[in-house]
Write a structure and sequence with these properties.
The chain is α+β, with helices and mostly antiparallel strands. It has 25 helices and 21 strands. A 7-stranded mixed sheet has the order 9-21-20-19-10-17-18, sandwiched between helices. The protein is elongated. It is a multi-pass membrane protein.
Length: 641
């Protein structure tokens, strides 16, 4: 018995969240029913159904058109389409050729569908902002006279002290006054490795505390925190209207004005200038409204782009916005985030050097200690040992030395894994070759871990975020494709960034960037190039993704916010699909241009025929609808690839 209630609730939700989609769907159904009943000779029923289609499908366009006319004294294509549709209906009733009414309903349906797509694009901003908000904490542990009090983050003021326990989200930006911990800043800065924070260091809201408790002092209002600035930047970038969209809007309104003006002149002047009868004059004017309505012109774009979207989906590329398929084919510069985009985003053991050239004991001792650690570097070492098939004895009396390393007993001997200064104090003199190799790896941006066992240095282990296998090959292909500028953006240090860039063939690097810095780089590139793409995966990339002409996110590694903000998603994180996406965008753009030329040419032919008196209404509708169908079929060519 619960099914009707659930069904009703679901319909109410759909109607509330997607009224335009429901209206377009109902309009499509009514048009089909109207055509069917008219074909069966049920004229009265057909007229009622088609009238409902006009009202339901054309309500929103009529409202927007009249609102624009009233408030801005401007005509737009929405109102022109309604006038053209009504003109077709009037002609059908006047000459009792009722299929013209179906033609008018089809015009309304086409515009209703375009309204649905526009509404979907507009809703993305709200979803991306909601995703960002989910990363912030609503409450904080405020310290008052040494006691904890749970308070709302919005109530915190400059000077308040806050406690952040291990594993918790940092509630707001602050300065560490007591404690030591490794903070996972990847959501904000994109750094692949946790950053050690101690007294005097700044931590950011939305980052994740490691194993140590921290006491913070609030140094700026919560609304000025880095994550809140990210939210505002995403809002600003996504609501800015790009120049291309402004041009399209101006063209639509100019076209509508021209058609209305010509229609009025054609409906009033010929009896005085050419001696036409009023019946013939009105007839020609209404034919003009039908054949001049830009259905073929409007269809020149969307079918091609939608078929391109379907093509991309089959190849693991998700385009969220049809306009972005065309835009991606026009990009001249690409900015790549490093961590999680060009790299895997996970630290791995990349090099090992043992004193006695035997790595088994080195990895076994290191894994014995690090198996009891929660640090990502330790997890990388354990994974490397497991991959080699090594087994180890469980360590005992293990203690972590914050900021230095870890120490314990393995098979009755003291074992140490950590930084060079910490390890060398506990061991015999270090071989020069080991020191030289350690310095070389560090210069390459790798994190070097020293291993000591029984007062003797066993060797060193290099841990780093590894480059994606297809990264270098993808960069080469993009350069061959004619991309003029390829840069890398990262929150990591310059040394690590330069090492990764050299490995994959990127010439220009911007390092140690915060989210707002990445946004600034994108804006700088946009001053040099007409179309700029940003490829990223993290929350810290969201403002840059929103600002870029085309924002591209990694489908698997990407954060929810990046996926919501981006225009394009590379499913399965396959960078090599970026080249295919650009080629697909360029081909879609060529098809759109071909369709526009064809549509305008056909409209011109129909208009000339109408002005010379060689056009009948059925022929005008046939030419109008026929050109629209041909343009749509042309746009669907991408579906077969």
């Amino acid at each position: 018995m619960s099914f009707p209630a659930v069904s009703s609730s679901r319909w109410q939700t759909l109607l509330k969240e997607h009224p335009d989609a429901i209206a377009a769907g109902v309009c499509a159904l009514l048009v089909l029913l109207g055509w069917f009943t008219l074909d069966r000779g049920w004229l009265g029923v057909s007229l009622l159904i088609l009238t409902a289609a006009y009202v339901i499908g054309g309500y929103e366009s009529t409202r927007e058109g009249l609102t624009t006319l009233w408030r801005e004294q401007e005509l737009d294509v929405d109102l022109l389409m309604i006038v053209a549709a009504l003109g077709a209906a009037i002609l059908g009733l006047w000459r009792k050729e009722y299929y013209f009414i179906v033609d008018g309903a089809m015009l309304i349906l086409i515009f209703a569908i375009s309204g649905v797509l526009e509404g979907y694009a507009m809703s993305r901003t709200e979803r991306s902002i909601q995703g960002l908000m989910s990363l912030t904490s609503d409450t904080a542990r405020k310290l008052v006279d040494g006691q904890e009090q749970m308070v709302a983050v919005a109530e915190l003021q400059i000077g308040d002290r806050v406690l952040v326990k291990p594993g918790e989200l940092v509630p707001t930006d602050g300065i560490v006054t007591e404690g030591f911990s490794a903070i996972d800043q990847a959501p904000i800065t994109g750094e692949s490795m946790p950053v050690e924070k101690t007294v005097g260091d700044e931590v950011f809201a939305g980052t994740i505390n490691g194993t140590g408790a921290l006491k913070l002092q609030i140094h700026q209002p919560p609304e000025s925190s880095l994550i809140q600035r990210v939210i505002r930047l995403v809002e600003q970038a996504q609501t800015e209207t790009p120049p291309s969209q402004q041009f399209i809007e101006r063209f639509e309104r100019g076209y509508a004005k021209a058609i209305v003006l010509i229609g009025i002149l054609l409906g009033t002047l010929p009896p005085f200038l050419l001696g036409w009868t009023w019946e013939n004059t009105v007839y020609r004017a209404l034919i003009f409204l039908v054949v001049a309505s830009p259905c073929a012109l409007m269809a020149a774009t969307m079918p091609a782009l939608l078929s391109g979207i379907a093509n991309g989906a089959r190849h693991g590329i998700l385009f969220k916005n049809a306009a972005q398929l065309e835009a991606i084919g026009q990009i001249k510069a690409i900015a790549f985030d490093k961590t999680g985009t060009l790299t895997t985003g996970k630290p791995q053991v990349v090099r090992v050097m043992a004193v006695d050239r035997s790595t088994d004991k080195l990895l076994q001792v290191a894994a014995a200690l690090e198996s009891l650690s929660e640090h990502p570097i330790g997890a990388a070492i354990v994974h490397a040992a497991q991959k080699q098939g090594w087994e180890w004895t469980e360590a005992i009396n293990v203690q972590s030395e914050p900021g230095r390393g870890i120490i314990g007993e393995v098979e009755g001997q003291i074992a140490i894994v950590g930084k060079a200064a910490f390890a060398q104090v506990q061991a015999a003199p270090c071989p020069d070759a080991l020191t030289e190799q350690s310095q070389k790896w560090e210069q390459e941006g790798k994190t070097v871990v020293w291993v000591v066992y029984a007062d003797r240095i066993l060797g060193i282990i290099a841990v780093a975020d590894t480059v994606r296998p297809a990264a270098a090959r993808s960069i080469v292909h993009l350069k061959k494709l004619g991309i003029e500028q390829i840069v890398m953006l990262t929150g990591d240090n310059q040394r690590t960034a330069d090492s990764i860039a050299w490995e994959i063939g990127i010439d220009k690097v911007y390092a140690q960037l915060l989210p707002e810095d990445k946004l600034g780089v994108i804006r700088q590139l946009q001053q040099q190039y007409p179309s700029v793409a940003m490829v990223g995966d993290g929350i810290n990339d969201a403002p840059a993704l929103a600002q870029a002409s085309v924002g591209i996110a990694m489908g698997t590694a990407g954060s929810d916010v990046a996926l919501e903000t981006a225009d394009v998603v590379l499913m399965a994180d396959r960078l090599e699909k970026l080249e295919y996406a650009i080629r697909l965008g360029r081909r879609s753009g060529r098809i759109v241009k071909q369709n526009i030329v064809f549509a305008l040419s056909f409209i011109a032919i129909l208009l000339i025929a109408n002005f010379t008196g060689n056009m009948t209404l059925p022929l005008g509708v046939l030419g109008h609808e026929g050109s629209t169908v041909l343009v749509i079929l042309s746009g669907l060519r991408l579906l077969k690839d």
